[in-house]
Amino acid sequence: MSAEKVNQKDRNFLAVIGDEDSVTGLLLAGIGHVNQQQKRNFLVVDAKTPLATIEEQFVEFTKRKDIAIILINQHVAEDIRELIDGHNQAFPTVLEIPSKDHPYDPEKDSVLKRVRRLFGE
């Protein structure tokens, strides 16, 4: 078995960066996890959360070997768009999700932008 397959197999968790309602809902659904180093797989973002904290948490999630998918509210993703667009690895996959107060805009979604580029649109 190759090292990459083992690496993919060990990615068991979702991570979430978002507003309180989104994170709470996902935690109630059971995605919450705290590892042995006391690192959580979620970050609640509000108006007082510094941009540097959001950026640091995103970078940390992308480096963790146990996270398969990062869910991020689209309005939060807009704040760190350069980091998200610069992330080109298959794992963890970054998916932008809507929030209660901010509707989803497919024109801003990084995944849809990449798909359009692949199809030459």
Automatic annotation (TrEMBL):
Membrane topology value: Peripheral membrane protein
Source organism superkingdom: Eukaryota
Subcellular location: Vacuole membrane
Main location: membrane
Keyword ATP-binding: no
A GO-annotated cellular component: proton-transporting V-type ATPase, V1 domain
Any one GO MF annotation of this record: proton-transporting ATPase activity, rotational mechanism
Keywords noted in UniProt: Hydrogen ion transport, Ion transport, Membrane, Transport, Vacuole
InterPro entries with a match to the protein in the record: ATPase_V1-cplx_f_g_su, ATPase_V1-cplx_fsu_euk, ATPase_V1_fsu_sf
One Pfam family recorded for the sequence: ATP-synt_F
Known partners and oligomeric status: V-ATPase is a heteromultimeric enzyme composed of a peripheral catalytic V1 complex (components A to H) attached to an integral membrane V0 proton pore complex (components: a, c, c', c'', d, e, f and VOA1). V-ATPase is a heteromultimeric enzyme made up of two complexes: the ATP-hydrolytic V1 complex and the proton translocation V0 complex.
PANTHER family with a match to the protein in the record: V-TYPE PROTON ATPASE SUBUNIT F, VACUOLAR ATP SYNTHASE SUBUNIT F
Functional note: Subunit of the V1 complex of vacuolar(H+)-ATPase (V-ATPase), a multisubunit enzyme composed of a peripheral complex (V1) that hydrolyzes ATP and a membrane integral complex (V0) that translocates protons. V-ATPase is responsible for acidifying and maintaining the pH of intracellular compartments.
Family label: Belongs to the V-ATPase F subunit family.
Protein name (Swiss-Prot/TrEMBL): V-type proton ATPase subunit F
